């Protein structure tokens, strides 16, 4: 993972769920140019030796799937978003992912969850994070001024 704040959060927060707005081999690379967050590092129990809790990241949510960690703290596919295949995820990942024995389809958000999201972000600012929707949101926001 990159970014100083993320590195600190992974080490300090007991249950970290990360999300990325792009699932590509560039984002999920085999080799990193630099790393500021250790995540699960080498899979060992290094955290308690440094006075940190044992948790580390719990999941990573991408536009294609939900990833989690197996018993060896290796990244694995836990659920596929509707219409996405395991093959697509493998093509868009720069390294080999494990597959959870409980692999399932990601359930869609409930009406209540969608309504809450619309209440806190009625202008859909959240869509600025996605390359595919950024221009439309910027055009809409420019028209509000």
Give a description of the structure:
There is one protein chain. The chain is an alpha/beta fold and 145 residues long. Helix content is 27%, strand content 19%. The protein is built from four helices and five strands. Strands 1-2-3-4-5 form a five-stranded mixed β-sheet, with no helix packed on it. It is globular. The model has no long low-confidence stretch (mean pLDDT 81).
Largest sheet: 5 strands, mixed
Strand order of the largest sheet: 1-2-3-4-5
Overall mean confidence score, pLDDT: 81
What pattern of helices and strands is seen along the backbone?
HEEEEHEHH
* Computed structural class: alpha/beta
Rg from C-alpha positions? 17 Å
* Helix fraction by DSSP (H/I, runs of at least 4): 25-40%
What's the overall geometry?
globular
What is the count of β-strands?
Answer: 5
What portion of the residues fall into strands of 2 or more residues?
15-25%
Uncertain segments of ≥5 residues (pLDDT<50)? Answer: none
Fold topology:
Blueprint: H1 4-12, E1 16-19, E2 57-61, E3 65-69, E4 75-80, H2 86-91, E5 98-105, H3 111-120, H4 131-144
Parallel strand pairs: 1-2, 4-5
Antiparallel strand pairs: 2-3, 3-4
Core attributes:
single chain, 145 residues, alpha/beta, 4 helices, 19% strand, globular
């Amino acid at each position: 993972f990159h970014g100083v704040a993320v590195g600190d959060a992974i080490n300090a927060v007991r249950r970290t769920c990360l999300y990325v707005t792009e699932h590509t081999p560039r984002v999920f690379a085999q080799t990193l140019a630099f790393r500021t967050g250790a995540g699960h590092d080498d899979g060992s129990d290094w955290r308690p030796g440094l006075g940190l809790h044992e948790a580390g990241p719990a999941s990573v949510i991408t536009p294609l799937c939900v990833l989690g960690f197996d018993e060896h703290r290796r990244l694995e596919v836990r659920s596929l978003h509707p219409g996405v295949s395991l093959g697509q995820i493998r093509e868009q990942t720069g390294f080999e992912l494990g597959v959870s024995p409980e692999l399932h389809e990601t359930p869609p958000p409930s009406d209540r969850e969608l309504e809450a999201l619309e209440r806190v972000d009625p202008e859909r600012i959240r869509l600025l994070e996605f390359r595919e929707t950024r221009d439309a949101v910027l055009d809409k926001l420019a028209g509000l001024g």
